[in-house]
Amino acid sequence: MNEGDRQALRGAPGGDPPSGAAPARPALSGTDPGRADRTGHPARAGRSGDSGRPGRTGTVLTGLAALAAAATAVVAGLSMAGGDRMGVVLPLAAVTGLLVAALAVTRFAAYVLLMLAVRSCVDLFKLSGPTAGRAGGGEATRAMDPSTLLAVLFLLAAGLWLAAQLRRNGRLRGSPLGLAMLLVGATCLISALGAGQRTASLLEALRILTVVVMFVVLEQLIPDTRAARRVLLACYASLVLALGYTVVMSLAGQPPSEVKGSFTRISGPFSQSTTFGRYLMFLVIFGFGIHRFLGRRSRVALTVLLTASLGFLLLTNTRSAILGAAIGLVVVAVLHRSRKMLVGLVVVAVAGVALLPAVGERFAQITQARSVGGGPTGNTLEWRVAYWTDIVTLANRNPVTGIGPNMTQRETAEAKKPHNDFLRAYVETGVLGLLAYLAMIVLILHTARQALRRAPPGSLDRGIAVGFAGCAVAFVAVSAASNVISNVVTLWYLFAFAAAASAVARTPAGAAPATGPGVPALAGRGGATST
């Protein structure tokens, strides 16, 4: 037998065994013959994933997570016992921030949807007091609010993700509305740098910038209307959380509310009833827009949410939000050509005034005169016009870039925000900011019009277009007499709807709406039912 035959009988390394011979056994017990390390030797047992047990790294990370959770619980408990609210919230916010940051790095789309779903309840952990409509204060405390920390985290994560998308694709999906919003954010930052109280002004610019970046991000995440459905699910998941909290607290005998003058107004999970009212305004209008195009189960669920939302909207006693919702719903009814909906609106209005006399009393105050510095519930149109006359001259200091975001109430004896977003844009961000804001308003309405033209009849796309058109008209109307830009949390949802409508507007004319497997329940069944 020659040397080659002897090697064949022994089985050369890496070669096949001779015919009839038993397969060679691995040299080491517990190793995988199909795996080898870089030296060519079989991989050793005990590594993570081989035996189903976590490796050393996983054990260490688990231990550190448990230690961090225990330390957080101890610190929060001691702070709660001492009555230190900041000591309770900040450790919890730190741990939550780390978990959210990990999600943002690994699953950015899921992170954005989570932010939309939970943002309505973040203000429950707010450290600073309410600031909408009046002079702010305590910028250091406000900077440590969980909402501010989440805004910073979102801007960092979104910036990195957008940069990665730009590098990979060579370009970002955009629209004229997105460009106008970027100009609004840029003018706010420029104005804040020249403000008399730079910290307060930069904080406001930061809040507005989160809305701008959210819209830009959602335009990338919504290439078509199929993807838009996930965003809508997240938005209405936030409504479930907001209403659930309000209902539970009300049943417990501690309804979340605030007292303004002679009225007790429901504030929900927000720090002010005005914010809750405007949040409900947008969710209600858009919900009625898409309702008829949903599947049966989704329609039932949304009907419950909209009914509860209308009730709580009236209980917020926020005149601008109630009027804005009425205007938006009329737009939806007209575009849907629904007489039933118009009749229903009249019935709800009459029933609301009859069952909730405070609503009628609140609107009756419009005819009552109120002097500068008067009571908190007599904000009539006469007072607003007088206040607008006083603050318009503030822009004379710097007509190009303005006095800085969030600075009006710090420069007037009344110490109030402008109650007019058009005037606010001029006074606080100058002519440049006003032009950017007007461009944004025009393009919001243009996006709604384009979506209405492109949406196929009888599809959810049509519902998205109609719902956003109602929201857009309500936004413009309410902005003329309120501080809507101050309620940044409500703008997250308005511009989430805008991103969905933008996707509809990009749909080629005559294209069929997306259908097929994998479409969430919100997708609807293509048929229209009366609302």
From TrEMBL:
Protein name (Swiss-Prot/TrEMBL): O-antigen ligase family protein
UniProt entry tagged with the keyword Membrane: yes
Organism encoding this protein: Polymorphospora lycopeni
Domain O-antigen ligase-related residues, every copy: 307-438
Keywords associated with the record: Ligase, Membrane, Transmembrane, Transmembrane helix
Organism superkingdom: Bacteria
UniProt membrane topology term: Multi-pass membrane protein
Annotated stretches, region: Disordered: 1-56
Biased composition (Low complexity): 18-30
Transmembrane segments: 60-81, 88-118, 147-164, 176-195, 201-219, 231-252, 276-295, 302-335, 341-360, 425-444, 464-484, 491-509
Pfam families: Wzy_C (PF04932)
